[in-house]
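Support request, please re-run this one:
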Amino acid sequence: MESNLNLHHVCIRVSNLRKSEVFYQGFLGLEKLREFTVAAEDAQTLLNISQECHFMDFAAGPGRLEIFTTTGAMPLPAPGNHFCLALTNREKLLQRLIEANITVRETMREGRQIVFIHDPDNNVLELKETDA
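Re-run finished. Output below.
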């Protein structure tokens, strides 16, 4: 079956936009594209969240990473859920993460070194080195 589908963005909940902005833009080097707010009524209709949501978009290659926060409590990330960012030079990024005391877990898969880290809200990110 032929498909014209491409992943546009991944959206995750965070507890603090500014703290997460430092992580995703400062440590990972993603370009911040915009910030926006979704009113509670629209958030209820679109996301089944009955509170105002504040969003931030980052460029991540051809796709985007979207993070959001709400004013009230929401569940923690489900165990096992994660997303993967591809990179071509992991050593420079790993050094920055280690200097920032961010725990780095590494393993081999498909003949390549795979790195897993957690953001400030315990969301899991996989960092997979790809060919340039």
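The CA atoms of residues 37 and 118 lie 25 Å apart. Strands lie at 9-13, 31-38, 53-60, 63-70, 82-87, 105-109, 112-118, 124-129.
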